[in-house]
Fold this protein.
Amino acid sequence: MTSTTEQFADLSATTLLRFATAGSVDDGKSTLVGRLLHDSKSVLTDQLEAVERVSASRGQDTPDLALLTDGLRAEREQGITIDVAYRYFATARRRFILADTPGHVQYTRNMVTGASTADLAVVLVDARNGVIEQTRRHAAVAALLRVPHVVLAVNKMDLVGYEEAVFAKIAEEFTAYATGLGVPEITAIPISALAGDNVVEPSANMDWYGGPTVLEHLETVPVSHDLTACPARFPVQYVIRPQTAENPDYRGYAGQIASGVLRVGEAVTVLPSGRTSVIEGIDALGESVDIAWAPQSVTLRLKDDIDISRGDLIAPSSSSPATTQDVVATVCHVADQPLAVGARVLIKHTTRTVKAIVKEIPSRLTLDDLSQHPNPGQLVANDIGRVVVRTAEPLALDSYADSRRTGSFLLIDPADGTTLAAGMVGESFASTAETTVQADEEGWDF
Amino acid sequence: MTATVAHVHEGTDAPYALSHLDALESEAVHIFREVAGEFEKPVILFSGGKDSIVMLHLALKAFAPAPVPFTLLHVDTGHNFPEVLDYRDRAVAKHGLRLHVASVQEYIDAGKLRERPDGVRNPLQTVPLTEAIQQLKFDAVFGGGRRDEEKARAKERVFSLRDEFSQWDPRRQRPELWQLYNGRHAPGEHVRVFPLSNWTELDVWQYIAREKIELPEIYFAHEREVFQRNGMWLTAGEWGGAKEGETTETRLIRYRTVGDMSCTGAVDSDATTLDAVITEIAASRLTERGATRADDKLSEAAMEDRKREGYF
């Protein structure tokens, strides 16, 4: 083997981190993203030339790095980010997929979109302003979507004299708030995206800070979880039955393991029918294996010839979920048309789509102050609320707290196919008790 | 959530970590199977280029040992590289697939499309593509587009709903949450599906190397007669060749993308193996499209505008 092949082998063994950025309009989010791309050498010459050309034609002296991320005509015209954009960059240690989400209040649904698949969220604040309403909103969305890691990037430290006290106060306030919402891990980093302090290179201006730079943290934060701790869930996507001369009897259940680990020989239950069998074989895209784990796409073969089709869920018999027709969840409303009590909808959960009716909307949450407004009657675009939905057929649901994959669903308008809402089964925040105490202290109106 | 926080493993040594290529492969296979499970008549856009070759490879793996449950569609500009058409036909035969060809040349011959003054045919593909989708009633159309290719494509969903005119409206896209893809559509509408959305050019090459996938030879360095136009090395062919003032010379080149010969440029390269190509791509300071595609240089929003009209 040549040395190139070895390098490539190393490179292909790197892991993938999906992360999302959130920040208010002028917090410098685009500059941070531009800096990360630029300093990790992920901006190529022709892209930079295009940015320079457009910046110059607008009469700007320096290239506007925000143009790297604003891909639509309307975004460039208005100088704002309308929609989530996905960016890709890599270091020797890891590959990154960045969901660059807009900061405008009216685009909460976009942050929800970006955060739904993120392992980590970067929440940006302006060091001069500290924790503001929008910061709390971003922290709340990250907590609601249960993003495992949150980074607080305190930006524009150069404008506050690189003062440790300013950073410490903001970090403390944010950490208290986010921890109260149940965010499990918070890392606060003082940065200047414009000057490049602590983004990719450690800052010489803040020797009081001993932690990682933003990139260093992104490179080292753990992305894999101990899946043996989560019960296995296997939504059946498609039944593979070649019925060919070579494979007359092959019957495999294709799907992506949503959580946990599956092993050959394991006793399994198929939901919602409740029939049981044993895993006879696991085909991992052409290779027969004894063990497979989330999020691998595999094909399972079972010992018994039982009736299984798309939409069924295979789970270990020892820890299979209960089925229900009454779904209690938090939803983020993402459509322009409202969602009202009594609405007939479709619910898409894993690979199963069933008819449903919205029985109740017990409350609407105001993210700014986490206050609950009882019985709003309907939810409109960007609202977050609790719903009770009755489904036509039983669903094997997990709590979103246990599994982002089997605890999430979409509500769809059966008339025109619009995605109405993103749903999360079970409790909204990991720790509501502490929030209530905080809320009482500050005299919030519930 | 407590479980995932309390038992995390450090770095890449975690027992249940997936390499980035395995993660991308798993995600793409999931997308293929979702479409197979939910649509009546899907089709894979297959040009014989590396992205569509990787798509076909993934589809073969997703449904093995059963055959791929999709047909293929190629929009032939009439100016394709002969090596690539040859590869296309061999791949179709090898896997026992069915190929539909929508021909730009036939549209021009029938007077339904007019040749552009610059001879570039890529933008002309939109009409044959969208008419083939309507006539053959495809309801899901797989494309090999990647979000890293171009800034308008960075805004594209994995499942992208197109109206009865195949139009893309970037401001009216459905939010795409978790891995829950919404493929609902009215009769006449269809969904474009991009299983390689999250792949980069380097990922594609690394995957080709790992999976030992055969490619048309024009992706590797070879000596070829080329001439320079608008800063790009073009190969003469039936579509045309050097004009007055443009001189033809023999250079050691390879192609990073394969498309219409009139607007796909070659790059100087001595990379004759997959390893050498990967090393070259990793060190390149130019994007794939910036280096080799004339049609994207037409205007700041060239890709967005074409996509709005139904381009893939």
About this structure: The longest strand of chain A covers residues 352-366. Chain A touches chain B through 98 residues (CB under 8 Å). Residues 1-9, 432-446 of chain A have pLDDT under 50 and may be disordered.
